[in-house]
Structures are given as C-alpha cells and as structure tokens.
Amino acid sequence: MWYFERNPFHNVVSWTAAINGLVQNGLNAEALKLFLKLLDSGVRPNDVTFTSVLRACAGFGEIGLGMSVLGLIVKTGFEHNISVSNSLITLCLKMGEKALARRIFDQMEKKDVVSWTAILDMYVGMGDLREARQIFDEMPERNEVSWSAMIARYSQSGHPEEALKLFLQMSRNGFVPNRSCLAIILSALATLEDLRVGMNIHAHVVKIGYEKDVFISSSLVDLYCKCGKTKDGRLAFDSMLEKSVVSWNSMVGGYCLNGQMEEAKVLFDSIPAPNNVSWNTMVGGYLENKEFDKVFEVFNEMLLCGEIPNASTFSSVLCGCASIASLEKGKNLHGKAIKHGTQYDVFVGTALIDMYAKSGDIESSKKVFDRMPEKNEVSWTVMIQGLAENGFAEESLLLFEEMNRTSIVAPNELMLLSVLFACSHTGLVDDGLQYFNSMEAVYGTKPKGRHYTCMVDILSRSGRLVEAEELLRSMPFEPETNAWSALLSGCSKHKNEEIAESTAKKLWELVDKNSAGYVMLSNIYASAGRWVDVLNIRRLMKDRGLKKSGGCSWVEVKNEVHCFYSEDASHCQLAEIYDLLELLRFEMLAI
DNA sequence: ATAGGGTTAG
Predict the structure, then answer these.
(1) Separation of CA A127 and C1' B4 in angstroms?
(2) DSSP code of residue A227
(3) Does nucleic acid strand B have an atom less than 7 angstroms from the CB of A46?
(4) Do residues A51 and A75 lie in contact, with contact meaning Cβ atoms separated by under 8 Å?
C-alpha cells in the first residue's frame, strides 16, 4: 500500500493488485473503498478487477453492493467473462442466492472446471448429494479440485466409504491427489477406522514430503486415535513442527475417545489458545466416559473463562443432565440455551426432550418436541421412547404412527423396542405381534435379542405361554436371560406348571454365567411362593461368592444428588432422615 | 494482478 499510494502513475494493473492485496488480507471494506477511488480516477476496471471486487463483496456480506457491481460489469461488457461469472456465482452462493447462482451458471456460454465445481458445491451444500453427483458425472472436464470437492463432501456428509471409493477411482484415472485431498481422505479413513489403508497413505505422505502439512498431520493424529492407537497418534502429534488448535483438539479428542481422561485433561490444560471446540471436546469426553460431575465442572470452568458455549456444548451438558435425571440443572441449562439462541438446534432440542423425559417431566418434553423446527431420527426416537417409558403408551404408539405418515424418518431398532414396550404396557398383544412380525419386512430391521425379549414378555403377560415358548425356541440366536425369566414369570402368573418347569430348568443352566440370573430366578420363585427354592438359590449364591447388586435411588436437593442404597445405609444424615420419617408417620396416625 | 477444494467437538 505504501508504494501504491506514493506512485503517481496508476493503471488498471496496479489498482487491481492493490485491491487484491487488501482482499487477501481480509480487509474487504478497504478494498471496496479503493475500488470506488479507482472509479473516480477514471481508470476502467477490467475482468481481474471485478473478480477481486466481487470477492470483497462476498467477504463483506453485501449482496446489494454486489448487484450494483453487476450493473457495472454488464455496462463494461464483462458479463460473459468466465472468471467474472465464476466470482458472481461464488458471491451468490455465499449470500444464499442459490436460484440466482444457478441462473448465472445456466446462462454462461462457456463454462470451465471452476464454474462446474462451484455449482457442484452448491448442491452439495444444500445436502443434495445425489444432484451433486449427477453434476459431477456430467461435468465435461474435471481436475483434482473437482474430485477433491466431491470426495470432501461425501466424507463430511457421513459417507466416508463413498469418499474412499471415489478417491481410488480418482487415482485410477491418473489424477494425483494434492494436499487437501490427502487431508480429506485421511479424515474419511479415520471415520472408517481403516488403519491398514490409512497407514499406506501415511507412508505415501512421508514419501512425497507432505507430512509437515498441518492439515495432513492433524488428520493423521485423528486417524491413529480413532483406530485406538493413541500412542501412535501422540507420536505423530509430537513430531509436528507447527501445531494448530485443530491438532491439539484432535489429540485431546483422541484421548477422550479411548477413555484416557487424565491424559486428555493434562493436554487440554496445555493448549496455548483453546477454542470452543477444545472445550466441547472435554465436555463431550467426560460425558462419554460417564464422569458426569466433571461434565458440569468443565462447563462451569468454560463459562468462567469467557468462552461462549454453542449448540454442541448445550447438547452435551443437557445429555449429562438426562443421565443423572437432574431436572433442576436441566431447566437452568434450558434457560441458558435460550439466552444463547441455541434452543432451535436439532441436537439441543433432542437433548432437552430426553432430559425432561428422563426427569419425568413429559409435558415439557412434548412442548420442546412440538416447537422443534427440524426433527431428526434421534428426536423422534427419544420422544417415542420418553412417552413409552413414562407410561403414556397410547400416545407413544400414536406418535410412532404419525411419524410413519408424515416424516421421511425411518423407524429404527430403538423406536421399535419402545413401540413393543408400549404394547406390552397396554396389553396390546396383537398390535405387538403385528409390529414385531413386520419389523424386517416393513421397517427393514432384524429383531434383536431385546425385541424378542419384549415380545416374549407381551405374550407371557397375557397368558399366551405356548406362543411365547415357541417364539423363544425358534430364535435364530441365543436369547437373553431376561427372555426366559419373562416367560417364567408369565407361567407363575398364569399357573402353568409344565412350561414353568422346563423354563426354570433352562434358567438354571444360564444362571451359572451371571449373578443377575440367580437374582431373577430367586425373585420368580419368591413371587410364586416357592420359598424353599428361594432359600436354595440364595445359599448357592453365597457359596459361590456372588453378590446381588443393590438397588439404588436418589433425590436431588439444592443441586446436590443424594444416593440411597438398599443394602448399604451410609447416607451422612441417615439418623435425621429416619427421625423425620418417624415424625411423619406419627402425624399421619394422628389424622 | 484473478475465480473452485483441506483437519477437530454434539
């Protein structure tokens, strides 16, 4: 700029070079001001000037300005220039004017790879991968950038296997992958946890001297960690000469993923400039590893440090609330989420539904669900599940049917389990059977052990014991222990000695494998009044050193969770609690 | 003197 301002002789090239220099440094407003000066000076801008100016408009977020520039472009006759049109398309896409972008593209007399790639990226950005692929297949000419664009989008949209296929096809067609493409494919391989191919690419990267690239080496760290090799990941991380915050985040995330939370925390504390992804990684890590106290601890620390939580943060922390069924914390976070404008995010909404449902406040779940502008598979699942598990079986089934009518979301295993659960709790035996039998044909999911167990439970509860037993014995794989005990408890309820005997025998075989089996069997004998058998089992368990895992309940008082165990009376205020109970009992008697 | 593609978290 110093030279530019002191040079009295300007031509288009020097003006354009100056404008472009500003744009490249992100000084869009200055670039536009300089462009106005250029116009005042009477120098005629050319095609290169326009591409730079349009880029400045895009960076500045000014579509109106871009349109006036368009007028100028038409007036000066550059509207059919390929570079100018390409820049225009990019501007439109940045401003969300997709229809206009497409119109400009269609009206271009000549198109080059850049034009095709830009429009390809538009469909990809709209989430329309099929249309994007069609454009990709129809492109008259491709270069490594168009290949990379398509590969990147497949990888980012949850189709890493398709990305890998395309990458191999690209290599077969003689295109040499560049740095970006290698970073993308390593990230896809990380998602696929394909260590074998990943290591091949790593070797290739070293051979061509790309291992110092920050993008590539960060992806390598991610690859090794996703494949469970945190040591190799750390090796790649330590050998990096230049680290970005993404490199740090990948390594921290790698430790979290592999349950090494202490290592994660140590590394996290040494990140030079953590961003919100770094924080979210730690929050998510503690959540995944079920260290719920730490979830809230890190979240509070995050707020204290002045880092702005985003939708990802709230979805994790709310999930933590759901896990400990803390309505108080959850409501508080709901308020914070609204304050940060994240309440309409799908993930946040879904976490809210689940949190309210797990805390027993199903009305609030329903409110959140109804107000969600966008619902995905998980949103529907947690709502259907929440209704079923809170005793609103009919509503749960109605919602499931509504989903099938109105949404493109396909039923998944978990939803179908909730549906069966709902049927079991309303005694809708035939509906249950119908859902169960249509699982594979209509919904495309093979029934798993849990579905069989639920179905056996439905049949047994209603006394259709022969059908239940037939179903159990016809299973293509080993049933869950629970399934046999469901049958047995049906037998004791409906007084069927014959099936009970054979089922009990089967259960006896299974109990050897786990203590839960003993407990179930003893409970079933107890409910049938066979106390001698109960005693026998208890004695057996004692002999084998097995301990029944105790029941536990808890309440939350003033943000603190108090646990009570059935066999371990260790609460610090136990005496006071019993005193108060005694007092209450006395009060009730007095009435 | 110019336009298109890159790594991490829910």
Answers:
(1) 18
(2) T
(3) yes
(4) no
CB A485 within 8 A of CB A518: no
Alpha carbon distance A203, A197 (integer Å): 10
Closest nucleotide over all strands to A146 (CA to C1'): B5
Alpha-carbon span A299 to A276, nearest angstrom? 11
Element (H, E) at A557: strand A552-557
Q: Is the CB of A20 under 7 A from strand B?
A: yes
Nearest nucleotide by C1' position to the A310 CA atom: B10
Q: Is the Cα dihedral A403, A408, A409, A410 positive or negative? A: positive
SS3 labels along A80-117: CCHHHHHHHHHHHHHCCCHHHHHHHHHHCCCCCHHHHH
Question: What is d(CA A426, CA A387) in angstroms, rounded to the nearest whole number?
Answer: 13
Closest nt to residue A81, judged CA to C1': B3
Q: Which residues contact A537 (CB under 8 A, 6 or more apart)?
A: A518, A521, A522, A525
Residue nearest to nucleotide B4 (CA to C1'): A114
| Strand B lies under 7 A from the Cβ of residue A223 | no
Query: Residues 227-256 of A near strand B (Cβ < 7 Å)?
Result: 244-247, 249-250, 253
pLDDT in tens, A259-317: 999 999 999 999 999 999 999 999 999 999 999 999 999 999 999 999 999 999 999 99
**Confidence bin at A329 (pLDDT 50/70/90):** very high
Point out the residue nearest to B1 (C-alpha to C1'). Answer: A17
Strand B contacted by A536 CB (< 7 A): no
What is A562-577 written as a DSSP string? Answer: EEEESS----TTHHHH
A244: left (phi over 0), alpha (psi -120 to 50) or beta: beta
A155 CA to B7 C1' in angstroms comes to 12
Neighbour-count burial of A276, counting CB atoms closer than 10 A to its CB (0-12 exposed, 13-18 middle, 19+ buried): middle
Check whether residue A179 has its CB closer than 7 Å to nucleic acid strand B. yes
Burial of A132 (0-12, 13-18, 19+ CB in 10 A): buried
Residues 6+ apart with CB under 8 A from A217: A211, A236, A237, A239, A240, A247
SS3 string, A156-211, reads: HCCCHHHHHHHHHHHHHCCCCCCHHHHHHHHHHHHHHCCHHHHHHHHHHHHHCCCC
What integer pLDDT is reported at residue A66 of this predicted model?
80
User: Six-digit token pair at A490?
Assistant: 């049906």
- Helix, coil or strand: residue A141: coil
CA separation (Å) from A566 to A549, A570, A574? Answer: 9, 10, 13
Q: Which nucleotides of B are covered by protein (CB under 7 A)?
A: 1-10
Cα atoms in the 13 Å half-sphere on the side-chain side of A282:
26
Query: Which has the closest alpha carbon to A122: A142, A139, A102?
Result: A102
Q: What is the pLDDT of residues A483-539, one digit of tens each?
A: 988 898 888 888 888 888 888 888 887 776 656 556 666 766 676 677 777 777 677
Residue of A227, A324, A330, A351 lying closest to A561 (CA atoms): A324
Nucleotide B2, nearest residue via CA and C1': A48
Q: CA distances (Å), A125 to each of A189, A497, A550, in order?
A: 22, 64, 52
